[in-house]
Amino acid sequence: KHIKTNMTKFSLAVSAILVGSAAAWSTPMTMKADAGVDSRRNILQKGAAFAAGLAAPAAAGAYAVPDLLYDFDALEPYIDAPTMKIHHDKHHGTYVANINKATEGKDPVPILDLMADALEAGPVRNSGGGHYNHAFFWDEMTPADKAAKTKVSDQLEALINKSFGSMDEMKAQFEARAAPGALFGSGWVWICVNQAGDELKLVGTPNQDNPLMKGVLDEVMFP
Ligand SMILES: [Fe+2]
């Protein structure tokens, strides 16, 4: 089951790339690129604000799986509805249940605030990372028809060209990195902006780790 789950995750990531020239890259990436030249604080605030699912819970133990902003079948034929449903309802649901258990009785904080020190925080590393990563993923994805109406900003395009050579080359590298068998075990593939905000990097993280967690990569970066 675990292996199958992992494969699904990677195929999700690859599918994200295959959604087409616009779908996977337009609106959310534009937001990231704008964030890339902001101060670190602004980057974090923008990151924190992008999805209701990542907002501070009203009370301890109240982290919740955010509703999708589109239908479960909205990403077909690239990602089918049952795959989306399993990852959203079952996977994400389990991570949320576990992070709620792990933070019971503590002051409620946005999940983003738990990421930096997650490696030392025991169960938060897996359940908190799982909550953040999945919520981020749902928010990143956009149905193709909607994405086709948006455009990558000039600023982001310049950053992509500088970092990868071209949009097509970035997609090719992402796809190769996220392909089944390219990484051993479970994990995620990310395109991040570095601390200086002047370069994008393609990185992989194991299990539910992410680039926001201190110690996972050489430097903390922003998905
Ligand atoms: Fe998942």
UniProtKB/TrEMBL annotation:
EC annotation from Swiss-Prot or TrEMBL: 1.15.1.1
Cofactor(s) demanded: Fe cation
Reactions accelerated catalytically: 2 superoxide + 2 H(+) = H2O2 + O2
Membrane-traversing stretches: none
Family, as annotated: Belongs to the iron/manganese superoxide dismutase family.
Protein's job: Destroys radicals which are normally produced within the cells and which are toxic to biological systems.
Protein known as: Superoxide dismutase
Organism for this UniProt entry: Ditylum brightwellii
